[in-house]
């Protein structure tokens, strides 16, 4: 098959899969699904996630860096937030920790999984992975602050029993998270945009003109934007359709309910992981870090305000505070991330260390 035919096939695939996923959503909405139907809907869901990220990348390529990473991170976070709210609506009391579990899983997967895998791939391929320490350091500091304010402080506040915020505290956390995320976006895209661009081994900014010369047309970008919205709707609806099966499988396996949050985070972040690894292979590690840390930041900065607003009509408690084990993992992630980012370059060792932390998180989620 020629390269032209392959590109044409892939374009058709990214057009028809979201539409097929929407059809699956319509046919499965409000029904008890058979095992075969669950498999079909799950396949449509996976295809819609991949298609969504593909179209987000097309739009991202059109607008360039660091706007491209921002588009992709926000798109993935919209999927995550929609899934959390959708599952919490029908989950009852057992979904009280779903938002916390999913957001924390997203932070661990992005800051350890995507960062570690990207650094490992880039370092093995190019001997040393290089990136912009100023931008990456600012992003990590923002992620650490958001995670501490939203996921650690509820464990120690006393206005409400348990690891929960009071209404006033939750409102403050939501406003602070949204404001801090907005401030970071302004710095990333306007004030200090050069801090978030890829650099060479000599510390000079990479020339982006070659990539920009091959950027999609405006019509192609608009088409991808529309298909991205279609794919996002399909992802949310199909995930709701298969969620009872996922939860039943977790319970029948005797695993903690927190594993559901890990599954959701893995689902929405897997395609973004592939995008980050592709960027790392092209020696654009900064793009990979923008994707990873930007997604972690958006996951907290956008999810907490939406969940806070949703508590107006959602019944039951909202548990946000982390336990001791997860706080240790979060502290280890922040310290290790800082030591990795400060030099502005990394070897395969740093990538392996981050992946080891992620492995510990997944293992302890299944076997606490």
Task: Tell me what the structure shows.
The chain has 368 residues and is an all-alpha fold. It has one domain (3-366): NCX, central ion-binding region (A middle domain of Talin 1), CATH 1.20.1420. The protein is 76% helix and 1% strand. The protein contains twelve helices and two strands. It has a two-stranded antiparallel ribbon with strand order 1-2. The radius of gyration is 20 Å and the shape is globular. 47% of the residues are buried. Residues 1-6 and 209-213 have low confidence and may be disordered.
CA-atom Rg in angstroms: 20 Å
Low-confidence residue ranges = 1-6, 209-213
Oligomer kind = single chain
Give the CA-based shape. globular
What portion of residues is helical? over 70%
What average pLDDT do the residues reach?
Answer: 82
Reading the helices and strands in chain order gives HHHHEHHHHHHHEH
Q: How many domain modules?
A: 1
What about the largest sheet? 2 strands, antiparallel
Task: Find the CATH topology.
Answer: A middle domain of Talin 1
- The CATH superfamily appears as NCX, central ion-binding region
Strand content: under 5%
Strand order of the largest sheet: 1-2
Kindly state the number of beta strands: 2
> What's the CATH first level?
Mainly Alpha
CATH level-two architecture: Up-down Bundle
Q: Please state the structural category.
A: mainly alpha
Terminal Cα span: 49 Å
């Amino acid at each position: 098959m020629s390269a032209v035919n392959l590109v044409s096939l892939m374009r058709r695939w990214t057009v028809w899969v979201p539409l097929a996923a929407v059809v699956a959503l319509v046919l499965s909405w409000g029904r008890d699904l058979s095992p075969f139907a669950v498999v079909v809907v799950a396949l449509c869901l996976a295809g819609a996630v991949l298609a969504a990220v593909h179209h987000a990348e097309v739009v991202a390529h059109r607008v360039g860096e660091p706007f491209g990473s921002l588009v992709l991170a926000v798109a993935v976070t919209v999927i995550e937030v929609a899934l959390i709210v959708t599952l919490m609506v029908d989950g009852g009391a057992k979904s009280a920790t779903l938002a916390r579990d999913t957001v924390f899983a997203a932070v661990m997967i992005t800051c350890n999984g995507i960062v570690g895998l990207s650094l490992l791939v880039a370092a093995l391929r190019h001997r040393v992975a290089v990136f912009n320490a100023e931008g990456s350091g600012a992003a990590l500091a923002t992620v650490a602050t958001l995670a501490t304010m939203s996921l650690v402080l509820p464990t120690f506040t006393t206005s409400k029993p348990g690891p929960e915020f009071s209404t006033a505290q939750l409102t403050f956390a939501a406003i602070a998270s949204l404001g801090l995320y907005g401030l970071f976006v302004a710095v990333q895209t306007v004030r200090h945009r050069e801090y978030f661009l890829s650099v060479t081994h000599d510390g000079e900014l990479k020339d982006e003109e070659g990539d920009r010369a091959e950027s999609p047309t405006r019509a192609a970008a608009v088409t991808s934007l529309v298909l991205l919205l279609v794919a996002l709707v399909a992802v949310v609806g199909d995930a709701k359709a298969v969620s009872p099966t996922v939860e039943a499988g977790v319970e029948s396996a005797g695993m903690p309910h927190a594993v559901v949050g890990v599954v959701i985070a893995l689902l929405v972040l897997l395609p973004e992981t592939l995008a980050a690894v592709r960027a790392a292979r092209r020696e654009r590690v900064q793009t990979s870090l923008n994707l990873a840390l930007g997604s972690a930041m958006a996951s907290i900065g956008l999810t907490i305000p939406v969940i806070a607003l949703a508590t107006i009509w959602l019944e039951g408690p909202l548990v946000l505070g982390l336990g001791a084990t997860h706080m240790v993992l979060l502290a280890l992630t922040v310290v290790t991330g800082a030591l990795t980012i400060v030099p502005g370059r990394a070897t395969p060792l740093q990538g392996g260390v981050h992946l080891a932390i992620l492995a510990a998180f997944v293992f302890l989620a299944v076997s606490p």
